């Protein structure tokens, strides 16, 4: 069963780009003692993710943080180099770019997407969640293509 409101964020290790290169970052480091808005995309540099989903969070990052969010994070089942390059291409300086290269965290959330028909393999469903001290307070998973319930604007209304 997919993660739900009231559930704790599962323990996992993701990758992010640090000052000296790729580094591990645990879900505990990301979520413990913080209010986090995590949004996930099926793939970096894909059209819906690059044209619609990410830009909403980039443009509204200051407003989201002013509403009490400590960390805005973007995750995809891509490698850390791709996530870093995509973050730079999107001017996502205020967003923690997280690589779930093997899809382990996505699997622990039970939010996998079978993108085999498009040559993508297993990816993450498009979703956004808000967690307070590692406990999910809101989660919105897109039921089909497009960006609606996981958009920055929709999530901001929940803060």
TrEMBL record:
Residues covered by the Thioredoxin domain: 3-159
CDD domains: PRX5_like
GO molecular function, a single term: thioredoxin peroxidase activity
GO BP annotations, alphabetical order: cell redox homeostasis; cellular response to oxidative stress; hydrogen peroxide catabolic process
UniProt-listed InterPro entries: PRX5-like, Redoxin, Thioredoxin-like_sf, Thioredoxin_domain
Catalytic activity: a hydroperoxide + 2 glutathione = an alcohol + glutathione disulfide + H2O
Protein name according to UniProt: Glutathione-dependent peroxiredoxin
